[in-house]
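Quick one from the shared queue. A colleague (R.T.) flagged GDYXXLXY domain-containing protein as missing a structural entry in our internal table.

Convert sequence to structure tokens.
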Amino acid sequence: MSGHSGVLTGKNRTRLLIAVVLLQILFLGGIAGSYYAVGWFGQEIKLKTAPVDPRDLLYGDYVTLGYEISQPEARLWKGTGERPAQDSRVYVLLKPANGLYEAAGIYDAKPAAGPGEVVLKGKVRSAWGESIRVQYGLEQYYVPEGTGRQLEDKARNMIVAVKVAPWGQAKIVGMEY
């Protein structure tokens, strides 16, 4: 029996180092790839913006956007319990209506989407009474430096084109003023 059990030899150490480096590269590539995959595999939808407190509308080089789907009616809650808990993950089923998408249901587990429907993943910011507030990660849109002031007034009433991947991740791909 060898006295080297449990000790890595130079060759094994090199293999382990290569494996660790490859795993790190795969992990970082997966994160970057998931963002681009939304563009490749996502379905494009259009959302109507809603007014946002003008004091917080513009900060630096991004515009703060609010959406009508960010404040869905509490009656749309289809999950367990009376309403979703604050900071919980939810899935909002969106259906087309007059060229835009509107909330049709809020779930605590991803529902099956029918033809033309999409499911957007979000996080509950608050839920009390008949009010639910959901954040989707689409609330800030970065703009070229110096153009934010021009968008300040328009941001209250514009249409935002969003690509939604089958797994619920989304990204903004354009705006209509």
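Residues 43-176 form one domain.
The mean pLDDT is 85.
Added to the table.
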